[in-house]
Protein backbone atom coordinates (compact mmCIF):
# COMPACT_ATOMS: atom_id res chain seq x y z
CA UNK A 1 0.00 0.00 0.00
CA UNK A 2 0.90 3.64 0.11
CA UNK A 3 -0.43 7.17 0.37
CA UNK A 4 -2.98 7.25 -2.41
CA UNK A 5 -3.44 10.75 -3.76
CA UNK A 6 -1.13 13.30 -5.31
CA UNK A 7 -3.41 16.30 -5.02
CA UNK A 8 -5.55 15.38 -8.01
CA UNK A 9 -8.83 16.35 -6.43
CA UNK A 10 -9.77 12.87 -5.26
CA UNK A 11 -9.51 11.07 -1.93
CA UNK A 12 -7.15 13.18 0.20
CA UNK A 13 -3.94 15.13 -0.03
CA UNK A 14 -0.94 12.87 0.61
CA UNK A 15 1.43 15.80 1.28
CA UNK A 16 -0.84 17.08 4.03
CA UNK A 17 -1.22 13.61 5.51
CA UNK A 18 2.53 12.90 5.48
CA UNK A 19 3.32 16.25 7.06
CA UNK A 20 0.65 15.71 9.75
CA UNK A 21 2.05 12.25 10.48
CA UNK A 22 5.48 13.75 11.14
CA UNK A 23 3.99 16.55 13.26
CA UNK A 24 2.19 13.99 15.42
CA UNK A 25 5.39 11.99 15.96
CA UNK A 26 7.22 15.20 16.90
CA UNK A 27 4.67 16.16 19.61
CA UNK A 28 6.35 13.89 22.13
CA UNK A 29 2.99 12.32 23.03
CA UNK A 30 4.13 8.93 21.71
CA UNK A 31 6.92 6.60 22.88
CA UNK A 32 9.48 8.11 20.48
CA UNK A 33 9.97 11.29 18.49
CA UNK A 34 12.22 9.44 16.02
CA UNK A 35 10.27 8.62 12.83
CA UNK A 36 12.63 5.70 12.13
CA UNK A 37 11.11 3.95 15.14
CA UNK A 38 7.77 3.90 13.28
CA UNK A 39 8.70 3.44 9.62
CA UNK A 40 11.90 2.97 7.64
CA UNK A 41 10.46 3.64 4.19
CA UNK A 42 7.71 5.80 2.72
CA UNK A 43 5.39 4.70 -0.06
CA UNK A 44 2.86 6.53 -2.16
CA UNK A 45 0.79 6.14 -5.34
CA UNK A 46 2.06 8.92 -7.64
CA UNK A 47 -0.89 9.03 -10.01
CA UNK A 48 -0.98 11.64 -12.73
CA UNK A 49 -4.07 13.52 -11.65
CA UNK A 50 -7.61 13.47 -12.89
CA UNK A 51 -6.65 14.64 -16.38
CA UNK A 52 -4.20 11.77 -16.97
CA UNK A 53 -1.59 13.99 -18.60
CA UNK A 54 1.23 11.87 -17.27
CA UNK A 55 4.71 13.15 -16.54
CA UNK A 56 4.34 16.90 -16.28
CA UNK A 57 6.41 19.46 -14.39
CA UNK A 58 3.59 19.52 -11.82
CA UNK A 59 3.81 15.73 -11.35
CA UNK A 60 7.59 15.86 -10.96
CA UNK A 61 7.44 18.75 -8.48
CA UNK A 62 4.73 17.10 -6.41
CA UNK A 63 6.85 13.98 -5.93
CA UNK A 64 9.93 16.07 -5.12
CA UNK A 65 7.81 18.03 -2.61
CA UNK A 66 6.69 14.78 -1.00
CA UNK A 67 10.30 13.78 -0.55
CA UNK A 68 11.21 17.22 0.78
CA UNK A 69 8.70 16.68 3.62
CA UNK A 70 10.72 13.60 4.61
CA UNK A 71 14.00 15.53 4.50
CA UNK A 72 12.53 18.49 6.41
CA UNK A 73 11.35 16.29 9.26
CA UNK A 74 14.08 13.66 9.33
CA UNK A 75 17.18 15.44 8.09
CA UNK A 76 18.31 12.33 6.22
CA UNK A 77 17.40 10.20 3.21
CA UNK A 78 14.75 7.53 3.44
CA UNK A 79 13.87 4.97 0.74
CA UNK A 80 10.68 5.65 -1.21
CA UNK A 81 8.50 3.14 -3.03
CA UNK A 82 6.06 4.15 -5.74
CA UNK A 83 3.60 1.39 -4.92
CA UNK A 84 1.02 1.93 -7.61
CA UNK A 85 0.67 3.96 -10.74
CA UNK A 86 -0.70 3.16 -14.12
CA UNK A 87 -2.35 4.56 -17.20
CA UNK A 88 -5.70 3.46 -18.56
CA UNK A 89 -5.89 3.38 -22.33
CA UNK A 90 -9.67 2.87 -22.20
CA UNK A 91 -9.23 0.18 -24.86
CA UNK A 92 -8.17 2.76 -27.46
CA UNK A 93 -4.92 2.30 -29.45
CA UNK A 94 -4.12 6.04 -29.49
CA UNK A 95 -4.41 6.19 -25.68
CA UNK A 96 -2.26 3.05 -25.43
CA UNK A 97 0.42 4.83 -27.48
CA UNK A 98 0.19 7.80 -25.12
CA UNK A 99 0.42 5.40 -22.18
CA UNK A 100 3.63 3.96 -23.64
CA UNK A 101 5.12 7.46 -23.75
CA UNK A 102 3.91 8.21 -20.22
CA UNK A 103 5.47 4.98 -18.92
CA UNK A 104 8.81 5.65 -20.65
CA UNK A 105 8.88 9.28 -19.51
CA UNK A 106 8.03 8.32 -15.94
CA UNK A 107 10.77 5.70 -15.60
CA UNK A 108 13.29 8.08 -17.19
CA UNK A 109 12.36 10.95 -14.85
CA UNK A 110 12.47 8.70 -11.79
CA UNK A 111 15.92 7.44 -12.78
CA UNK A 112 17.30 10.91 -13.52
CA UNK A 113 15.59 13.14 -10.94
CA UNK A 114 14.38 10.92 -8.10
CA UNK A 115 17.27 8.79 -6.84
CA UNK A 116 15.40 8.28 -3.56
CA UNK A 117 12.83 6.05 -5.33
CA UNK A 118 13.85 2.43 -4.79
CA UNK A 119 11.12 0.77 -6.85
CA UNK A 120 8.16 1.58 -9.07
CA UNK A 121 5.22 -0.82 -9.20
CA UNK A 122 3.18 -0.41 -12.37
CA UNK A 123 -0.54 -1.05 -12.08
CA UNK A 124 -1.30 -3.65 -13.68
CA UNK A 125 0.18 -6.46 -15.71
CA UNK A 126 -3.01 -7.55 -17.55
CA UNK A 127 -6.21 -5.89 -18.61
CA UNK A 128 -9.01 -7.17 -16.40
CA UNK A 129 -12.58 -7.14 -17.67
CA UNK A 130 -13.83 -7.78 -14.12
CA UNK A 131 -12.18 -4.64 -12.75
CA UNK A 132 -15.22 -2.53 -13.62
CA UNK A 133 -17.17 -4.45 -10.95
CA UNK A 134 -15.03 -2.96 -8.16
CA UNK A 135 -13.79 0.22 -9.82
CA UNK A 136 -14.55 2.35 -12.83
CA UNK A 137 -14.56 1.15 -16.43
CA UNK A 138 -11.12 2.75 -16.82
CA UNK A 139 -9.73 0.18 -14.34
CA UNK A 140 -10.19 -2.52 -17.00
CA UNK A 141 -7.54 -1.04 -19.31
CA UNK A 142 -4.45 -0.39 -17.20
CA UNK A 143 -2.74 -3.60 -18.30
CA UNK A 144 0.56 -3.98 -20.10
CA UNK A 145 -0.89 -7.10 -21.77
CA UNK A 146 -4.25 -7.77 -23.37
CA UNK A 147 -6.34 -10.17 -21.37
CA UNK A 148 -6.28 -13.86 -22.25
CA UNK A 149 -9.34 -15.06 -24.08
CA UNK A 150 -9.95 -11.75 -25.85
CA UNK A 151 -9.57 -10.93 -29.54
CA UNK A 152 -5.93 -9.90 -29.05
CA UNK A 153 -5.16 -12.82 -26.78
CA UNK A 154 -2.23 -12.67 -24.41
CA UNK A 155 -0.07 -10.11 -26.23
CA UNK A 156 1.81 -7.03 -25.20
CA UNK A 157 0.12 -3.69 -25.66
CA UNK A 158 2.15 -0.62 -26.66
CA UNK A 159 2.57 0.18 -22.95
CA UNK A 160 3.83 -3.36 -22.45
CA UNK A 161 6.44 -3.01 -25.19
CA UNK A 162 7.57 0.28 -23.63
CA UNK A 163 7.98 -1.48 -20.27
CA UNK A 164 9.83 -4.36 -21.93
CA UNK A 165 12.26 -1.91 -23.56
CA UNK A 166 12.91 0.23 -20.50
CA UNK A 167 13.38 -2.87 -18.32
CA UNK A 168 16.00 -4.21 -20.76
CA UNK A 169 13.90 -7.16 -21.92
CA UNK A 170 15.65 -9.60 -24.25
CA UNK A 171 13.32 -12.61 -24.47
CA UNK A 172 10.98 -13.60 -27.27
CA UNK A 173 7.61 -12.26 -26.16
CA UNK A 174 5.79 -13.75 -29.16
CA UNK A 175 6.01 -17.22 -27.58
CA UNK A 176 3.33 -16.14 -25.08
CA UNK A 177 0.82 -14.93 -27.64
CA UNK A 178 -2.55 -16.61 -27.39
CA UNK A 179 -1.55 -18.64 -24.32
What characteristics describe this protein?
179 residues; mainly alpha; 4 helices
Task: Describe the structure concisely for a colleague.
The protein is mainly alpha-helical. It has helices at residues 14-26, 57-74, 93-113, 158-166; strands at residues 42-44, 80-85, 117-122.
Please explain how this structure is put together.
The protein has four helices and three strands, in the order H-E-H-E-H-E-H. By secondary structure, it is mostly helical. The longest helix has 21 residues, at 93-113. Mean pLDDT is 86; it is low at 6-11.
Beta-strand segment tally? 3
Stretches with pLDDT under 50, minimum 5 residues: 6-11
Q: How far is the first residue's CA from the last residue's CA?
A: 31 Å
Q: What about the largest sheet?
A: 3 strands, parallel
Tally of alpha and pi helices: 4
Q: Name the helix and strand elements from N-terminus to C-terminus, one letter apiece.
A: HEHEHEH
**Helix-and-strand structural type:** mainly alpha
Helix content: 25-40%
Could you report the average pLDDT, rounded to the nearest whole number?
86
How much is the radius of gyration in Å? 18 Å
The percent range for strand residues is: 5-15%
Strand order of the largest sheet: 1-2-3
What form results from the Cα inertia axes? elongated
Secondary structure topology:
Blueprint lengths: L13 H13 L15 E3 L12 H18 L5 E6 L7 H21 L3 E6 L35 H9 L13
Parallel strand pairs: 1-2, 2-3
